[in-house]
């Protein structure tokens, strides 16, 4: 038995997954940045805990390791205030997503500027 799915239903299902991804990113940040009344930012310990508890995929864990939190903080903390705000955290998520995408399309670790098949829609 085959089920026919319209393009509109497929788009709705994809958006539902994207909705979940977006709300999860916000919720994870807020869960770890909630430090009892202080501004909503991640300090080094909160970021370390977030990475340790929320990233399990080896491809992603290799990009930012909890053991290398100093380097991760320096990379993420663009305004150099010793904490990571939501915008800086989103940059981190983008870097992780891009690395995972490249791994999935077989482009991981390659720094060349040549295009590979499937790059037309990279954006």
From TrEMBL:
<keyword id="KW-0479">Metal-binding</keyword>
<dbReference type="GO" id="GO:0048306">
    <property type="term" value="F:calcium-dependent protein binding"/>
</dbReference>
<dbReference type="GO" id="GO:0048471">
    <property type="term" value="C:perinuclear region of cytoplasm"/>
</dbReference>
<feature type="domain" description="EF-hand">
    <location>
        <begin position="64"/>
        <end position="99"/>
    </location>
</feature>
<dbReference type="InterPro" id="IPR034325">
    <property type="entry name" value="S-100_dom"/>
</dbReference>
<dbReference type="GO" id="GO:0046914">
    <property type="term" value="F:transition metal ion binding"/>
</dbReference>
<keyword id="KW-0106">Calcium</keyword>
<dbReference type="InterPro" id="IPR002048">
    <property type="entry name" value="EF_hand_dom"/>
</dbReference>
<dbReference type="Pfam" id="PF00036">
    <property type="entry name" value="EF-hand_1"/>
</dbReference>
<protein>
    <recommendedName>
        <fullName>EF-hand domain-containing protein</fullName>
    </recommendedName>
</protein>
<dbReference type="Pfam" id="PF01023">
    <property type="entry name" value="S_100"/>
</dbReference>
<dbReference type="GO" id="GO:0005509">
    <property type="term" value="F:calcium ion binding"/>
</dbReference>
<dbReference type="InterPro" id="IPR018247">
    <property type="entry name" value="EF_Hand_1_Ca_BS"/>
</dbReference>
<dbReference type="InterPro" id="IPR013787">
    <property type="entry name" value="S100_Ca-bd_sub"/>
</dbReference>
<dbReference type="InterPro" id="IPR011992">
    <property type="entry name" value="EF-hand-dom_pair"/>
</dbReference>
<dbReference type="GO" id="GO:0005615">
    <property type="term" value="C:extracellular space"/>
</dbReference>
């Amino acid at each position: 038995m085959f089920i026919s799915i319209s393009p509109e239903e497929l788009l709705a299902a994809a958006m539902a997954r994207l909705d979940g991804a977006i709300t999860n990113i916000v919720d994870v940040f807020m869960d770890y940045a909630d430090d009892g009344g202080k501004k909503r930012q991640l300090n080094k310990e909160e970021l370390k805990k977030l990475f340790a508890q929320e990233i399990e995929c080896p491809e992603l864990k290799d990009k930012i390791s909890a053991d290398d939190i100093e380097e991760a903080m320096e990379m993420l903390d663009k305004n150099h205030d010793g904490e990571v705000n939501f915008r800086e955290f989103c940059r981190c998520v983008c870097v992780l997503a891009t690395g995972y995408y490249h791994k999935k399309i077989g482009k991981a670790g390659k720094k060349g500027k040549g295009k590979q098949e499937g790059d037309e829609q990279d954006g």
